[in-house]
Amino acid sequence: MPQDAGKRLDHFLHEQLPQYSRSRLQDWIKGGLVQVGGHTAKASLVLRGAEVIDVSPAELAPLKAVAEEIPLEILYEDAGVVAVNKPAGMVVHSGAGAHSGTLTNALLHRFGQLSQLGGEQRPGIVHRLDRYTSGVILVARNDAAHQNLARQFSSRTVEKVYLALVHGRLANEEGRITTPIERDPVRRTRMTTRTGAGRTAITHYRVLKRFEKFTYVEVKIGTGRTHQIRVHFSSIGHPVAGDKLYGAPASEYGRYFLHAARITFTSPESGERVTVAAPLPPELEHWLTRT
């Protein structure tokens, strides 16, 4: 229709097929299941308003975790909690565009049953790490442990420590970033601090080592907002090295430099404080030696 002239193909399809997510529609476009005028097209194609568009929907994959035999590095385990060293590149749970190779799939194969409070899509998941953030993540094995850990996270009694390499030389040896964070209203894959609105976010950092063009820092977060460390450091002009989404050049390592190094929590089983550490991955060790 003429009123649709100037719209991107993926945006137009999302308007016409709102029951499907934009990422799913983009997957169909990439897979050649959408044709414009009898030809495959890119999601970014700008419509003229008179095209014939054919869509052949792919079968919807179930949004639930399915057991898969995937290697896991278990750092800690008791009757209620498992701590895993998640590699960079592994998605925590299934979602749009990611149904296999997830952490939850691997955990189901290894342990058979996890807490069900997160539903079939997120069994055992109490908190998350971004896809390309490596390091320690806690998983609840039963509902009671899940509820207990959730209370610890909401009351901020879980201590999370990260290691990050950021661009530039931070002015102070330690600091605190408290700018609220919300979803970017324009680029929905990003978070932002620019609006001055959003949810409270607290990030503390301490300089570990200075390089000519980078600063290596230990980071503690008092809140667990989406992309918190990444967007906070970008907001002060020091994006995480390799983090293209927040303004840094791409790295040769296929990831950005952010690692969940240590987590301290109270065991729901014993009531004792437990600290679990994940060693810095070899590629990040190598990155440091070349910085």
Main attributes?
alpha+beta, Structural Genomics Hypothetical 15.5 Kd Protein In mrcA-pckA Intergenic Region, Chain A, 9-stranded mixed sheet, 3-stranded antiparallel sheet, 6 helices, globular
Order of helices and strands: HHEEEEEHEHEEEEEEHEEH
Proper CATH architecture of the largest domain:
2-Layer Sandwich
CATH names the topology of the largest domain as Pseudouridine synthase
Q: Which percent band covers the strand fraction?
A: 15-25%
Q: Catalogue the unreliable spans.
A: none
Which structural category do the helix and sheet elements fall into? alpha+beta
Relevant CATH superfamily of the largest domain: Pseudouridine synthase
Q: Using only CA atoms, what is the Rg? A: 21 Å
Global mean pLDDT? 91
Count of the separate structural domains: 3
Number of helices: 6
Largest sheet: 9 strands, mixed
**Overall spatial form:** globular
Count of extended strands? 14
Secondary structure elements and pairings:
Blueprint: H1 9-16, H2 22-30, E1 34-36, E2 39-40, E3 53-55, E4 74-77, E5 81-86, H3 103-111, E6 134-140, H4 143-154, E7 159-167, E8 174-177, E9 182-183, E10 191-192, E11 203-210, E12 214-221, H5 228-235, E13 258-266, E14 273-277, H6 282-289
Helix pairs in contact: 1-2
